Every structure is written in structure tokens, then in C-alpha cells.
Amino acid sequence: MTIQVTVANAYGVAMASDRHVYRAAQTLSTGRHVKLHRLRGPVPAAMMCAGRFSILGFPVSRLSLQIERALADAAGAGPESLAKAAIDVLRQPLCVPDGGDDAEALAAVAELVVGRAQAYGGTEAAFGRLLAEIGAAPRCHGGDAVEALGRSAWRASADALATSPSVAAALKRTPDLLGEAVIGALVRNWSRPADVQMMVGLCCPATGVPAVVAVKIWKGLSGRLLFAARAEHPSYVLHRAGRSLVLSQGSGRGNVCAMIEGVSEDHTTGQAPSETITAAVDKRWQHVHDRIGVSSPAELASVAAGLVRGAEVIGYLTGEDEGSIAEVDSLLLTPQGVATYTLAGTPDQLELA
């Protein structure tokens, strides 16, 4: 389980990430690799990411340099403009040598689409249900350009995308429905895993107002990124004192949300379908705002670090001894600069990864 958390209020922005997580078969970010990037420059800021180390051959860590430069160029603007500058970096095509393998990207989405259609019965009606589900999902930012590229690539190479018997069968039976579903799933925030989940926290040096950008990122076509907001808006700008915004990403997000509200058992037991659990977590997560009150900037950073630990959040916040895990790094961003905090772990448990 990996958890990364941003907590923001009038004191500033606290961003925390665990150092050690379990390795998986895929090359995903682990605690032995940097996930929390402190950005330099006139704007106190940091970028936190989880997922693949690179997209379309472009190292994700290099995005932090581009965002750093964009924030420096907009340093004299307000918090909304600073947040927009960070978002605009994701709108630009990546500087990759070959622009990425478009056929490979379409084939990967086709596998996901066909798998979901088979779960619905695999019939033409099942594809119709899937198209309606995909069409109801919000479009990604930059989806129009990628959709045009995708339709062109699909017409040119659809026959070569039969990477499995199930996709080959779908291409033979319902080629038009499959094509629409693949293009739709490619450019919409549909239920497919994000390549990278990213949060950027910053604090306007002129006004002291903190802002958070939280997005899910997918590789598009021809060196372009597609991204969608983690919640209703791509960025959050906080103006009101005494109110906290909590954003979490990673496999432990549901646990963090549940334990903030003291109802962890609702999400960790029972046989409810994953869609039901996800919907319940999302609904509860919208009400997490204002649930955590802090009395100082240092406490804000400590709470963020405590939330990363997930299962022991209640013990940490109440001061009770509930055990410990690996160390957690936390950055606190204020108009005056960046402060670093570490919540120490138990020495004999620091080699999980």
C-alpha cells in the first residue's frame, strides 16, 4: 500500500509521501525512488507523483523542472494564475524522439475495453452498454486533439491491433463499436488505471494563499499527455482561514478517507463490489474537507505525515501508541519558503521495499 497526501489550509500546504512501499511486478514508483520533488525558485512549491517512472519515454521527474520554470515565470501573479501555469505544462506535447507508439497505446486501451465488454456479456448489446458508460465519463483535458489523432491512427492500423484472440474476435464482429469505445476510453476519464497520479502544491508568495493541483495522467498519442482532475476541479485555491483540504492518492486512499471519518470497517470488510466501494469512498471523500483542524504550521505537516501512514492515523492524531512503520517525509510550503519534516518510523521496519 502506498499513500501520498496533501493537506492545505491558511497555514500553507503540507505534502507527505511514504519512503517505503512494497514492490510490484510492474515498474512503479517505490519508496526507494523520489516521489516528492521540492521545486526551487521564487514560488514555494513541490510536486508529488506516483505511478510509472516515465511516460512515452519521458521521465516523469522532468515534469518537475518544467513546472518549476512555469511557476517562476508566473511568480508575480496570484494563486489562480500559478495553479494554471502548472496545469498548462501538462497541455504541451512531450519532447520525445519518436512521439510514442500510437498503435501500442491503442492496443492497450482495446484490451481494457474488450475485457470490460466481455464482463458485460461480450455481445453487441454489451458494447452498447459500455459505450454509454464511457460516454458518461468526463472528457480529459486535451481530448479533442488526441481524439482526432486516435481516429486517424485507428483507420490506419486497426487490423494490426489484434494483440489477443478476444480483441481479434471483437474486431471481426463489431469493428465500429470497438473503435468508438477505444477512442472514447482513450480521451475520457473512464475507469482505467492512470499512468501517473500527480499533485503539485504551491503557496503564492505575494498573497500567502496556498493552491493544490491534483490530476491523473495518461499517455495519449503523438507525445501528448491526457489528464483529468482528481476531483471536481483541476486546482484548489484556498482563501478561508481555519479550513483544511485533504487530497490523497495511491492504493491507501480509501483507508485514509475511511479512517478520517472513523468508518474504516465499511470499506475493508464485506463482499460489496469494487464499484460500490469506490462510489462510497468518493462520496465520503467529498465531505472530508474541514474535518482536520490544526493550530500551527508544524502540526499541519505532522498531520499530513500521519495521514500517509493510513492504518495508524487514529493513533497518531489521538496520541495513542498504535505501532509504527517506515519514516515519512513531509514538506510544508508557506509564503516564507519550504520547511522539511520527518515523522520517524520503527527501525526494524524500514526495509519493506
Helicity range of the residues? 25-40%
Sheet/helix structural class: alpha+beta
Q: How would a textbook summarize the main sheet? A: 6 strands, antiparallel
Number of strands: 13
Molecular structure report:
Among the domains are: 1-28 and 245-353, no CATH class; 102-187, no CATH class. Helix content is 38%, strand content 21%. It is built from 12 helices and 13 strands. Helix 3 (102-119) crosses helix 4 (124-135) and helix 4 (124-135) packs parallel to helix 7. Residues 21-25, 314-324 and 347-353 have low confidence and may be disordered.
Key structural traits:
about 40% helix; six-stranded antiparallel sheet; alpha+beta; elongated
